[in-house]
Write the structure tokens for this entry.
Amino acid sequence: MIKDQDFLEAKASYCLDVAKRIGATDASVTIGHSISETVNFRNKNLDESNRSDGLAFSIDTYIGKKKSSISSSNLLDENLDTLIEKCYETTKITPEDEFNSLPDKNLLADKLKDLNIYDNTHIDNDKKIQYLKELENIASEDKKIINTESSFTEKKTNFILANSDGFCSGYKTSSFTTSCVAVAKDENSMERDYEYSSKRYLDDIKDPQTLGKMASNQTIRKLSPKKIGSEKLSVIFDKRIAKGMLSAFASAISSSAIARGTSFLKDKINEQIFSNSINIIDKPDIIKGLGSKNFDSEGIKSETLNLVKEGVLKNYLVDTYNGRKLNLQSNGRSGGTTNLFFENGKQSYDELLKTNSKCIYITETIGHGSNLVTGDYSVGATGFYVEDGEFKYPINEITIAGNFKDMFKNIFLANDLDFEFSTNSPTMMIQGMTVAGK
Amino acid sequence: MSNFFTKSDLERKDAESIVSDTLKNCDDGELYLEDSKSESIILDDNKIKSSNYSSDLGFGFRAVSDEVVAYSYSNEISKDSLKSSSENLQSTLKSVKGTYNNEIPKSNKKFYSDINPIEQKTLDSKLEVLNKVNDYLRKKDGAVKQVTANFLGEHKSVEIIRSGGEAITDIRPLIRFNVSVMLEKDGRKETGVYGIGGRQAYDNYLQNDNWKSVCEEAFRIASVNMESKPAPAGEMKVVLGPGWPAILIHEAIGHGLEGDFNRKKTSAFHNLMGQKVASEGVTIVDDGTIDNRRGSLTIDDEGTPTEKTVLIENGILKNFMQDRLNARLMNTRSTGSGRRENYRHVVLPRMRNTMMLSGNQTQDEMIKSVDKGIFAVSFGGGQVDITSGKFVFNCTEAYEIINGKIGSPIKGATLIGDGPSILKEVSMVGNDMMLDPGIGTCGKAGQGVPVGVAQPSILINKMTVGGTKL
């Protein structure tokens, strides 16, 4: 059973009391508990079961403008005493930083909305096994599929965030995640692809047949890929990777990157960085949203932010510390974005594919080729060659490259947005990228 | 050494009997206990940005029957907690009829000492070094606009209790020191990053002000990048420098030679044992036994002593890297490659220090032989799709080669290649093998473990360079 609010609150207030008693001027503590149960299948047989049950504790102690932190998984009072003492001793010899402080009291979340992000349903491992059996039966139907691996994870968490200004709040969340990775083989190649489904509520995850069929189809269509020549081309990003563009954007507008001067988007507020058809929104209160939250990791109320409006950058993602440095008020984004998305474009998916007589459609990228200081981007890619809107053949062992500053201005979006992840994009086209192959 | 049983109602003999009872009809399994302490001190933007200390204690209980692994972990070491894990394992592995394999090799060799690097140096003295780094770099050049420097220290005690009560222990120190510098000149910004580390005390790394050489190297890389031009796009010859660029070996070859992917036949190498997979003269080993290296281990996380495993000998595929489970299912022995990030994770076959050994050519000969290509000296991360064999890595310092001479530095670009064929494209192997500076972390199935790499300079006939210049 997941620990209840009373247990976590009692531990949190114990920690705050200890910190105050030994001399900390302020303190902030997080106590979390999570339980997850996973069943893994491989080739229609049970492969692994995994149960985890973990408590976590972290505390920041302040002495004026000095701050230090400690974390541990051992919540016995005796251990907490020792660690908080150690944290306090470390704080004493840590230099002052004028920007260190607890968050503004008047920005703290005062009441919690019910975001429907906790489903109390428990699904037994036997039922998970049943789901995975059905899934793998479908996924391995085609004889080109030579290996399937699938998993089903149920996770429940609860936490309390409390600070010495009187803030004390937290809530439960749940997630149910199923996935299938398939390997297909023909005379020319062996390829892997996947599909997964992750939801707050058990009843919302994809049914096993759909998931298995998608994993299988997506893998088989990658067989016998070709390598194409090097040229400038329009690149279409499948939804599952288009969201990566948003994640890079979010990292570049984090107040820490801006304050440190290490982002290519520094000093770009109120400037046109995308074409004027682009809107980017971060919305924390989507019902059942995978990124939904009531407050950020400091307790500050999260509200909807229009990050980009008609192509113009309107907001950074601001936390208390970096906000003070930049002379900005926190907008409740300590710990990052919530449910981040591009608004739909005007064209349909088919229209987007037909924009150019030839282009490539990318389903997977590999490598860590985003440089957020310069904006340079270069990654390995696999996908399909597209002519007149039709998938002609799979391609691999190519790279796609550009610079975010140019790429952002050349983004065109389809109107097929859905909310499968916490960060979501419609299908995306970026014109004029360099494709390197043969 | 941590005593996991002093502050708990769980006594060693109880733990032993729960382990033996739970595993009696299983093929393998163990109770893994871990007590780790770590610290991270970061200087950033002219200030000590954070000093964190973390202490983590817990156990992972594993039961293995045939191909099936049941695993349960908890961070509460108590009789109740271990019993409930035992029940959880037994509910997964109902009615199994295996025979527990009691055999586990022994060794007295140790590859690092039982020190606690966190306690060996005071916080004050670490803060002092970080502040010196910041001052040194900012005074060095007005173009230095940002400096980040950090210390990471870890001290991990592990104990493995097998059925029958056999206990195996290890104490593992690990440190890392890293410097990142950003330069800004005429509106252009570039960064350079360099770090060092290993299973030793900080002082072994920071004596005689050698933190300065780390600063110099980070600064040098950033300065080179300030002059960089767009990288070329397309297939061309690539010369790799010695040392850290061996992450190419790690990505292109290493992952594909891990036992699990080959038992499951999902690796592009699974049917190539005994065959020629690399040019003559190419020998690759995975070695857990080099003193004080980041990827070294006295025993792996199943208790097997590590070894130097020959993966490819003179071009021929000789061995995969194995943990106990995959070794048993493939009728071979563990190579001491069973590793886990911590007690929360199951064991997987992983790399330790993966090295290509020296040949007899020089880097000069390689450069001179190239009409058009690139010379890659330093890398960021890499990644591989072990099924298709395609792998990438990102250059952080590279130059163009024109008519046998090194030309301008080029912007960071991704290089992509095909694992099973890349080593056949190696046409020269240098005589200058070098170990990396001790900074690598390898990710697999969501678990990060410290690793090392090494190689001499090599010439690759053909790779695709992912630049922007056609």
